[in-house]
């Protein structure tokens, strides 16, 4: 059998068929956005929007702040009561349990010197050494001189005890709590009690120049050892703050009383039941 050579046309047609198989046009690889693409775009939009809002708020606060001071006056912020709802609970009650008066020592008490108007005195002068370091004695010192006055801050405590009276308890002579006292056989030595503006003053750095302004003469005490004296009562809402200054009216006035937090000596506030 003779080998018949392929014709040129047959060879060409075979090559064209092979080229068609080898060079098929590529499919379109482009596709639509997936769910992750959508979430990424929306997350970017939310982040940018949040940054824009924060920047706007910051610019607003800076534009409404002068000299670096806060927008709110911290001295005039309201004091929230911890006895919420008790006024409604006890309103109209007739058979109330009688409660004895309670004594309320000043939170801080500090002295200022008119002759040294820019000098402040440490609140805790006596210190004792312990295994954990130096700690102050828990003492309240009432010091009065012709040029030295004492400033006390009180906070009304408990519920339904809103009738308050400033009280001065001077120990008898020879008592260790009475360090010094001056008396005369003639006219009594008087101590004036001034109500001060109810500003939150830094009592640790109190000076004659920075103490609150006097607004009212609350009353007068006599400098008399072994006596307990009360001023007329005033309304003291629960959790309210009250500031008073004691000053000598006479030149020969001298008083120094030391009391601990558990003893009603020196200056304190007596609270009486009102509900």
Give an account of the 3D structure:
The chain has 275 residues and is an alpha+beta fold. The protein has a domain at 99-123 and 137-272: Jelly Rolls, CATH 2.60.120. It contains three helices and 15 strands. Strands 1, 7, 11, 12 and 15 form a five-stranded antiparallel beta sheet that branches. A five-stranded antiparallel beta sheet has the order 2-6-13-9-10, with no helix packed on it. It comes from Gymnopilus dilepis. This is Ubiquitin 3 binding protein But2 C-terminal domain-containing protein.
Write the layout of secondary structure elements.
Elements: H1 8-22, H2 35-63, H3 86-90, E1 102-104, E2 109-113, E3 127-130, E4 133-136, E5 139-144, E6 148-155, E7 163-170, E8 178-181, E9 190-196, E10 214-222, E11 227-230, E12 234-235, E13 241-248, E14 255-260, E15 266-272
Antiparallel strand pairs: 1-15, 2-6, 3-4, 5-14, 6-13, 7-11, 7-12, 7-15, 8-14, 9-10, 9-13
The string of secondary-structure elements, in order, is HHHEEEEEEEEEEEEEEE
Q: Level of helix content?
A: 10-25%
Radius of gyration: 41 Å
- The total strand number stands at 15
The biggest sheet, with number of strands, parallel, antiparallel or mixed sense and barrel status, is: 5 strands, antiparallel
Number of helices: 3
The secondary structure category is: alpha+beta
Which overall shape is indicated by the principal axes computed on the Cα atoms? elongated
What's the pLDDT, averaged over the residues?
81
The percent range for strand residues is 25-35%
- Terminal CA distance reads 134 Å
CATH fold title of the domain at 99-123 and 137-272:
Jelly Rolls
Question: Tell me, what is the CATH class of the domain at 99-123 and 137-272?
Answer: Mainly Beta
Protein name: Ubiquitin 3 binding protein But2 C-terminal domain-containing protein
Organism: Gymnopilus dilepis
Region (Disordered): 1-26
